Amino acid sequence: MAAITDVAGWQAVLDREAAAFAPMQDGAAIGLVAREHLPGGLGSAMVWRAEGGLGRAHLLPFQGFAKAGVDLLFAADAEALAHLAGESDPLRALKGLVRKGNLNLYIMTSKTDLQERGFEEFLDTLGLAFLGACR
C-alpha cells in the first residue's frame, strides 16, 4: 500500500476499523500528508472522512494548513510513509511513529470541537490520550 495515494488500501483499513468512525459526526476528518509538502502546501493528502457512521478514504489535493479541511492532520516523514506502506495495521502504527518523531500530529480544531465531532473513540483506537486522567 502506498501510504498517501492508495485509496482502496486505506478504505480496507477504515472498513476494518469501522467502530472508530461510528460515533463521529458526518464531515469529521483526519488527513495524512507527507511532511515535505508542509512548507509549500502543495501535494496530495489522504483524508479519512466520517460519512454515515463509516470512515471513507479520499485522495485530495493538499494546499497547506489553512485549506486542509481536516480536524486532525498527520504529517509523515519518508521513513514513516515507508513504514505505513508495509504495515498490516497502519492505524495502530501511527502512535509509535508519533512517539518516534517520524509523524507529527497537528490538531486543527479545538478540543471541544473534537469531542462534539466524536473523535474520542478514534483517538482511543490509536492509543493516543484524548481527555487525560481528569475525565
- The secondary structure category is alpha+beta
Mean pLDDT: 89
Give me the strand/helix succession: HHEEEEHHEHH
Tell me the fraction of residues in β-strands, as a range.
25-35%
The helix count comes to 6
Helical fraction equals: 25-40%
Low-confidence stretches: none
Taken from the alpha-carbon principal axes, the silhouette is globular
Radius of gyration: 14 Å
Q: Please summarize the sheet with the most strands.
A: 5 strands, mixed
How far is the N terminus from the C terminus? 38 Å
- Number of separate strands: 5
Spatially, the strands of the biggest sheet line up as 3-2-1-4-5
Task: Set out the fold topology.
Blueprint: H1 7-16, H2 18-21, E1 29-34, E2 43-51, E3 54-62, E4 72-76, H3 78-86, H4 90-100, E5 103-107, H5 111-116, H6 120-126
Parallel strand pairs: 1-4
Antiparallel strand pairs: 1-2, 2-3, 4-5
